[in-house]
Amino acid sequence: MNNERIPPAEFRRIQRAREALRNRLPGGLNYVLAVSGGADSLALAAVCGQMRRDGDLTGQVTAAIVDHQLQSGSTEAAEGAARACRELGVDRVVIRRIVVPGKGTENDAREARYRELELVRQEVGAEFVLTAHTANDQAEQVLLALARGSGTRAIAGIPDKRGRVLRPFLDVWREDTEAVCEAYGVEPWEDPTNADPEFALRNKVRLELLPEITRILGDGALANLVRTAAQARHDAEHLDNEAQAALQACALTETPEVLEGPRASGRAPMQWDLDRYLLKNAPQAIRTRVLRIAAQTVGGRAPTAERTAALERLTAGEGSAGPIQLDGYVTAHRIKTTPDHSVIRFIGRPPAAASDASAASDA
User: Fold this and answer.
1) How far is C-alpha 152 from the chain's CA centre?
2) CA-closest candidate to residue 228, choices 150, 172, 152, 148
């Protein structure tokens, strides 16, 4: 890349992408790059390749390309992304072709992709997986969370780190990644579904709503959405810490009790009792978090807003004593243990056999 031929405005965009990685990635670690072939992920590969040549990254960099095989031409797109990564100086390139379970929805594909990326990370001995989510993705996420009436944690948007996944481009805009691709002479692959507003709600937000917001409110509107995410994240982190402390105060045992009973997929039934009086008198922002954490700890999924409201009524002593059915084969009950004391009991159980499951759903 010849820096002298790049216009100053474009050069500043490229530098922003470079600085984002230099500031966020420890140089001596091994990384797996999640590469789709789009501008964002190829820009990530380009900057990582440059950092390898400059000596800023001394660990190994592996590009992992997951072909979901959900669209015609996906094989060719994966091969093209692999060639681009090799030309950009990535140490190693792997292509994984997977079968997406379920109905092949966007969520099914995402979960399958992250599982495969984690397998690649373990196989190559990398410390982290890097994804190329940008500030544009963050703005979209915040707007969707606001439209859905979500809480602080959802409005906090995409985290820059979760487990073994790092997202170093969250301060980088899509225009920056496109400038990087042009400077390095790589042509991104455009997923045809990304240009189809009918394919997914996120596409409608990206292609229709965000441009209209920018037109009406000005160029700073998207940056303000990203700033909202950062502010909400700080609040959410504090509340999450307070909720963990409150959970330990309310829980009658330090961890869920493993119950005797049948196991499925290596999972034993679990039970966890929380002091209802202490929980009832906690601030609502803490109480709802404690209830959600408890449900997830015994093996369930994060309860929806509707299910969380039902848990709130259970805790307040209103209506039925349960059970409340939660996603992930978890139930919650209000149990009176003495005349003056009651608990909220979460029970996580293994998935039922198919015949039992259908009977339960009919009930």
Assistant:
1) 15
2) 152
CA distance 160 to 155: 14
pLDDT tens digits along 328-354: 889 999 999 888 899 999 999 765 443
> Which two three-digit tokens encode residue 342?
């009651």
Would you say 41 is a known binding-site residue? yes
- Flag whether 40 is marked binding: yes
Determine the pLDDT at residue 357.
33
pLDDT tens digits for range 27-57: 789 999 999 989 999 999 999 999 999 888 8
E strands, the chain, are 31-34, 61-67, 92-97, 128-130, 161-162, 165-166, 257-258, 270-275, 324-326, 330-338, 341-348
Residue 28 assigned ligand-binding role:
no
Between strands 165-166 and 330-338, the pairing is unpaired
Q: Percentage helix, strand, coil, to 5, in the chain?
A: 50, 15, 35
- Is 55 annotated in some ligand binding site? no
Burial environment of residue 289 by CB neighbours within 10 A (0 to 12, 13 to 18, 19 or more): buried
* 179's tokens: 């400038």
Query: 126, 103, 130, 125: which is closest to 114 by C-alpha?
Result: 130
Could you give the strand order of the β-sheet that contains 270-275, starting from the edge strand earlier in sequence? 257-258, 270-275, 341-348, 330-338, 324-326
Tell me how long the chain is. Answer: 363
Q: Is residue 265 annotated as involved in ligand binding?
A: no
**Would you call 242 exposed, middle or buried from its count of C-beta atoms within 10 A (0-12, 13-18, 19+)?**
middle
Q: What's the rounded Cα separation, in Å, for the pair 253 and 52?
A: 50
